């Protein structure tokens, strides 16, 4: 064990591998900061290059790219209200509200430091507990997956700004869109209206870009407060750009480290949530961010600030989604089951390199060197993210200086390019435009957008697990026939019912005997 770790360390610090890690970090930050270009897409574009890299360099490139692009997705989330990653949708309103108050550097500083801290925690979990934790995930059946999807969707609706009824309505809209096309459990196309492009369903990336990005363009274009908000934002920034970036360390990092120490228990809780959710196959950082956000709001002394510009919300959610990244590698390495879309690609790369993921990967000395190299890459990538992330923040922050009459067309251009580049389809552009109009209308009635996006993402998986469970046993009690599924099911039901009965209980308790 010790000899393989030393060998992995010697391999990882070689100039060639370090150069690959550095270039992958820059590439990940660049791609992640462009709305519509997700970490999965960046990894997919990198796959052809892995043919020409050795095993460790190829996997190190993917690990670094994923870690950096997830954080980079917070840059457009914070500055222009376009989630760079699906998990960013959990705290989009908080991050953007801070930007409108001139606190974009502080918000991004919290995202950076808590992302690195969460990523290192996830790496520690991967290193110390991979085989043991993977056994827990392996015990999950379709019943547990069903309740896990319900939990993630419920949290998205419950923690959204506004009433629970509006959150539930937004969730229903998202689930409705998820029923479009062919599902894995039905052979008949649904709600395609004669469009062949809808056979595969509605792609959530154009939908997400339209709901959050294009709706912002419509809102700024059609409301009369645009110029006033622009001047207010510009007045909160220095008149001239200081070329000495060292003077900007304080706005970015000044209050973050004290906040991390002050909220160390909240950070630990969020990182544990992220690592646990991440190691469950198919869950990923999206659910981790939403659940962590919900728990953070529930435990907060100031829950009314959530959705209106809470640094606590940003810190806890970013800790969870970054710790989930390493957690997703646990089932991928130990069981050969992808934890998320990126590790699904990783399994393909490993097989391409004649490496079969599974329990045997920890017994073969040569492959164990690769596993230890993955551990070290997670640590190096997260540490490298601190300086490179700061440079990305300083570069990206200049977006807020652009006048609205210039910024809005640029955002529209990124929306169109990001939507088209996914499949090279003009139909996705039309989907983005339609979702943009829908997002604008929903915001007029104060209906949250986050549950709509998550409903589109998880709706298909929820339906599939539900039908699979009914095919096993059509009794509703079968959903509670296992201890873990029963606990998850009761918790999900309590999330919705307890708040409904709490006013009645308070009234009963407060009434005189």
TrEMBL record:
Listed Pfam families: TctA
Annotated transmembrane regions: 12-30, 108-133, 145-161, 168-186, 198-218, 328-352, 372-393, 405-423, 429-458, 479-502
Claim: Ribosomal protein is one of the keywords in the record: no
Domain called DUF112: residue spans: 18-454
Keyword Membrane: yes
Protein keywords: Membrane, Transmembrane, Transmembrane helix
The protein's name: Tripartite tricarboxylate transporter TctA family protein
Source organism of this protein record: Gimesia algae
């Amino acid at each position: 064990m010790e000899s393989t770790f030393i060998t992995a360390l010697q391999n990882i610090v070689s100039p060639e591998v370090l150069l690959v890690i550095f270039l992958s970090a820059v590439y990940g930050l660049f791609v992640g900061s462009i709305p519509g270009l997700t970490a999965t897409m960046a990894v997919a574009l990198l796959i052809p290059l892995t043919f020409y890299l050795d095993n460790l360099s190829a996997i190190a490139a993917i690990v670094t790219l994923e870690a950096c692009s997830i954080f980079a997705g917070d840059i457009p989330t914070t500055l222009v209200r376009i989630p760079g990653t699906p998990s960013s949708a959990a705290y989009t309103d908080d991050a953007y509200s801070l930007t409108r108050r001139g606190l974009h550097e502080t918000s991004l500083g919290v995202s950076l430091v808590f992302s690195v801290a969460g990523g290192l925690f996830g790496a520690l979990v991967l290193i110390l507990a991979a085989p043991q934790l993977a056994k827990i995930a392996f015990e999950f059946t379709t019943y547990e997956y069903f309740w896990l999807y319900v939990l993630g969707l419920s949290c998205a609706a419950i923690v959204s700004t506004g009433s629970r009824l509006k959150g539930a309505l937004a969730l229903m809209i998202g689930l409705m869109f998820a029923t479009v096309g062919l599902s894995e459990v039905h052979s008949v196309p649904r709600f395609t209206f004669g469009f062949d492009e809808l056979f595969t369903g509605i792609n959530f990336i154009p939908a997400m870009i339209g709901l959050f990005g294009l709706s912002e363009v419509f809102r700024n274009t059609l409301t009369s407060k645009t110029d006033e908000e622009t001047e207010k934002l510009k007045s909160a920034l220095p008149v001239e750009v200081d070329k000495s970036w060292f003077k900007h360390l304080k706005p970015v990092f000044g209050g973050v480290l004290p906040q991390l120490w002050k909220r160390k228990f909240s950070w630990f809780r969020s990182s544990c949530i992220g690592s646990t959710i991440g190691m469950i196959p198919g869950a990923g950082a999206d659910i981790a961010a939403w659940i962590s956000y919900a728990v953070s709001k529930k435990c907060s002394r100031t829950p009314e600030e959530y959705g209106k510009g809470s640094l606590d919300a940003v810190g806890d959610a970013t800790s969870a989604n970054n710790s989930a990244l390493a957690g997703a590698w646990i089932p991928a390495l130990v069981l050969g089951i992808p934890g998320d879309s990126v590790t699904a690609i990783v399994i393909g790369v490993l097989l391409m390199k004649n490496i079969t993921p599974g329990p045997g990967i920890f017994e073969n000395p040569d492959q164990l060197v690769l596993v230890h190299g993955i551990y070290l890459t997670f640590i190096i990538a997260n540490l490298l993210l601190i300086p490179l992330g700061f440079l990305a923040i300083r570069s990206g922050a200049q977006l807020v200086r652009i006048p609205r009459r210039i910024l809005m067309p640029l955002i529209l251009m990124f929306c169109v390019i990001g939507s088209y580049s996914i499949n090279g389809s003009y139909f996705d552009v039309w989907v983005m435009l339609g979702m943009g109009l829908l997002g604008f209308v929903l915001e007029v009635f104060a209906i949250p957008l986050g549950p709509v996006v998550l409903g589109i993402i998880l709706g298909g998986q929820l339906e599939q697990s539900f039908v699979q469970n009914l095919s096993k046993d059509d009794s509703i009690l079968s959903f509670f026939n296992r201890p873990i599924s029963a606990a998850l099911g009761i918790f999900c039901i309590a999330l919705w019912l307890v708040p409904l009965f709490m006013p009645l209980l308070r009234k009963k308790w407060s009434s005189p005997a």
